[in-house]
Specification:
Layout lengths: L1 E4 L6 E2 L1 H10 L11 H10 L3 H12 L7 E2 L3 H10 L3 E7 L12 H12 L1 E2 L2 E2 L6 E4 L2 H10 L4 E4 L2 H4 L9 E5 L14 E3 L2 H9 L1
Parallel strand pairs: 1-4, 1-8, 4-7, 8-9, 9-10
Antiparallel strand pairs: 2-3, 5-6
The structure holds magnesium ion (MG).
Length: 202
């Protein structure tokens, strides 16, 4: 089986990092939950949409190295390898932020992978199995082109897109239960990487 995996908010968790940066900039009360969506909603409620947009560039660019890996992801990859499955990362993000300093977001993401996705110092992904595309359409085309049999993503609109091949098993990574399962009958809901393994191992 070839397992395709999204990157942002699926492999990488930004919750603690957005909370930290917003606290540093004195933009949120200290007791706000350490959650990206909570930080976004607080900034928007205070009329700080522009600040939120710039903060994303800063976090995904300058502070990327501090982002966390979701618990269980390395163990999941080791299981996939031992079971004979291939795994690829297929993500889409703009090359540069929408506002603020022009960080290279692809380079920051690849540097994060280089540092964090290792086991016993060795890379968990080969260079040719990591794809950062510029648009959602290119991401979907890549998923098709490399022949994924399953795809894990935190965004229903990717999994449910018309260009997503019907034969692919679609797992919705939803650790904070942002989506009601009944809304997406074609999707397998998972809340952690152990769940992903159980779903694919069944
Ligand atoms: Mg994502």
């Amino acid at each position: 089986m070839h397992i395709g995996i999204d990157f942002d908010n699926t492999v990488v968790s930004y919750d603690a990092l957005f909370h930290r940066v917003a606290l540093e900039q004195a933009l949120i009360p200290p007791d706000l939950p350490a959650n990206k969506v909570a930080v976004r909603d607080q900034l928007r409620a205070n009329g700080l949409e522009e600040t939120w947009i710039e903060m994303q560039g800063y976090v995904y660019g300058a502070r990327m190295d501090e982002a966390a890996i979701y618990p269980g992801f390395v163990e999941f990859l080791l299981w996939a390898r031992s079971a004979g499955h291939a795994a690829s990362i297929v993500s889409h993000k703009t090359r540069h932020p929408f506002a603020g300093p022009q960080y290279d977001l692809h380079a920051a993401a690849r540097a994060w992978i280089d540092t964090h996705l290792r086991h016993e110092r060795r890379h968990l992904f080969a260079q040719g199995s990591i794809f950062f595309e510029l648009t959602k359409e290119e991401k979907l085309a890549r998923i098709e082109a490399i022949g994924c049999d399953a795809f894990i993503d935190d965004l229903p609109e990717i999994l449910l897109a018309d260009a997503m091949p019907p034969r692919i098993r679609k797992l919705l990574f939803d650790p904070d239960a942002n989506h009601a399962p009944a809304d997406h009958a074609d999707l397998v809901p998972v809340i952690c990487w152990a769940d992903v393994r159980n779903a694919l191992d069944a």
